[in-house]
């Protein structure tokens, strides 16, 4: 499905998490770049296998030469205009070069497999980021709903105090304080709406859809259970399931093949070659006998004092051009040979290339170790934060319950003129803030659970 179809539909209904993930996997530009790199690795692998096949090439030329030149048919010097043509077919094949071609094919196969895994890792990262952005939208919506509920409750209280104010009963300052609280609640709604808009924009950027489209999410029911796995258990599962580890391991093996490729520069290279060639020249001619004639040689002999001319019999010839096809057939020649190239000295290039490839292996190993350390530390931090948020959520549940009772009592007392507005609004703000904190804690916990599930390789 293209962007146009998404543009048409996005503003018309809420989208589930699975639908957002599907859109992101199709449209995300970073993922498309990784796909292109994987495709390039595939082509490189195919080419490295094809490099082990013979190289066969044909050649053909035709031209006109004017002036002094060598007749390609007779190899004589001539001074005339002639048309020439050459045709050939050549074959070259490497028999042995220190297994360089074979190791290059193996290295590119490993790089291809690593690229595929890196594409999978990028997909996993994208799914995680979309999931976190989706949850952030849900969190922002929940907070906005709470601020609107707070505003509605304050409006109801404003109506009560307005009646008191008009009847000149109660404390006039309470009515002014309620108006101030209304303004505060309206500000909270504006802030919450801005946060929701920013969360939606973050999700839209991941989906790579136009920013002028309003995307909404489904308020799905999210389970809230205590996470059962320890940080070490999550890390152990990540070693088996995360594509980034497997990709780094393949990069190490590919780098090791690079050492073997570099070492092949120390070994002789043996190759065979063969060819078939022919040529044509417009100056080439055949001379056919047309008979004999008695001709005067210009010499004479004296017999009995009389000079007699010397005659000789001379064969007459007629020139005939040789056809293009006949010349190609007549001038056909073949060549077959074997070539051995022995490296004697190349400015220590081979030695230094081997040293560089060994460094690349060490860099690949360090990259894998760095990945292990980074992910292990990240898991430990996320797991610690997750447990802290869970405990905070449990405390906030109790706090909300206590503030609900406090607010109920203070609202009744305030409406009956027993308590002042300060006690009422303090109780109300405490409850509203506790509910917002509870909602934030819930989604913070769910976000961290999703991150831990991602490290486990679990489908989000």
Automatic annotation (TrEMBL):
GO cellular component: cell outer membrane; efflux pump complex
InterPro entries assigned to the protein according to its UniProt record, in alphabetical order: OMP_efflux, TolC-like
One protein family per Pfam: OEP
Domain of life according to the entry: Bacteria
Compartments reported by the entry: Cell outer membrane
Coiled coil stretches, renumbered: 100-168
Alphabetically ordered keywords of this record: Cell outer membrane, Coiled coil, Membrane, Transmembrane, Transmembrane beta strand, Transport
A GO molecular function held by the record: porin activity
Main location: membrane
Transport among keywords: yes
Family (UniProt): Belongs to the outer membrane factor (OMF) (TC 1.B.17) family.
Protein name: TolC family protein
Source organism: Winogradskyella luteola
């Amino acid at each position: 499905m293209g962007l146009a179809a998404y543009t048409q539909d996005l503003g018309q209904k809420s989208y589930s998490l699975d639908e957002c993930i599907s859109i992101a996997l199709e449209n995300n530009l970073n993922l498309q770049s990784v796909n292109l790199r994987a495709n390039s690795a595939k082509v490189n692998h195919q080419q490295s296998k094809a490099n082990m096949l013979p190289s066969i090439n044909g050649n053909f030329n035709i031209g006109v030469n004017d002036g002094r030149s060598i007749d390609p048919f007779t190899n004589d010097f001539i001074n005339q205009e002639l048309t020439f043509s050459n045709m050939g077919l050549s074959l070259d094949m490497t028999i042995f070069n220190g297994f360089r071609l074979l190791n290059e094919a193996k290295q590119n196969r490993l790089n291809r497999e690593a690229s595929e895994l890196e594409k999978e890792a990028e997909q996993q990262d994208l799914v995680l980021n979309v999931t976190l952005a989706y949850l952030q939208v849900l969190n922002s919506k929940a907070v906005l709903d709470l601020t609107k509920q707070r505003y509605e409750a304050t409006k109801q209280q404003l109506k009560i105090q307005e009646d008191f104010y008009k009847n000149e009963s109660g404390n006039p300052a309470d009515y002014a304080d309620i108006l101030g609280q209304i303004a505060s609640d309206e500000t909270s709604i504006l802030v919450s709406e801005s946060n929701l808009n920013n969360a939606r924009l973050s999700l839209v950027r991941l989906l790579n859809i136009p920013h002028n489209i309003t995307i909404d999410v489904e308020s799905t029911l999210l389970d809230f259970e205590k996470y059962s796995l320890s940080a070490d258990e999550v890390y152990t599962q990540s070693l088996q399931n995360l594509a980034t580890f497997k990709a780094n391991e393949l990069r190490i093996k590919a780098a090791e093949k690079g050492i073997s490729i570099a070492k092949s520069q120390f070994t002789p290279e043996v190759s065979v070659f063969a060819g078939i060639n022919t040529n044509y020249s417009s100056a080439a001619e055949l001379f056919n006998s047309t008979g004999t004639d008695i001709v005067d040689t210009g010499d004479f002999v004296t017999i009995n004092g009389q000079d007699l001319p010397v005659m000789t019999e001379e064969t007459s010839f007629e020139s005939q051009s040789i056809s293009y096809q006949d010349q190609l057939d007549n001038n056909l020649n073949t060549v077959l040979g074997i070539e051995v190239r022995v490296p004697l000295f190349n400015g220590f290039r081979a030695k230094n290339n081997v040293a560089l490839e060994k460094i690349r292996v060490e860099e690949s190993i360090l990259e894998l170790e760095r990945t292990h350390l980074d992910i292990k530390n990240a898991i430990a931090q996320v797991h610690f934060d997750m447990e802290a948020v869970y405990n905070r959520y449990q405390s906030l549940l109790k706090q909300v319950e206590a503030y609900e009772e406090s607010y109920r009592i203070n609202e009744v007392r305030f409406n009956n003129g027993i308590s002042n507005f300060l006690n009422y609004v303090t109780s109300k703000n405490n409850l509203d803030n506790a509910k917002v904190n509870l909602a934030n804690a819930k989604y913070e916990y769910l976000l961290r659970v999703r991150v831990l599930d991602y490290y486990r390789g679990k489908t989000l």
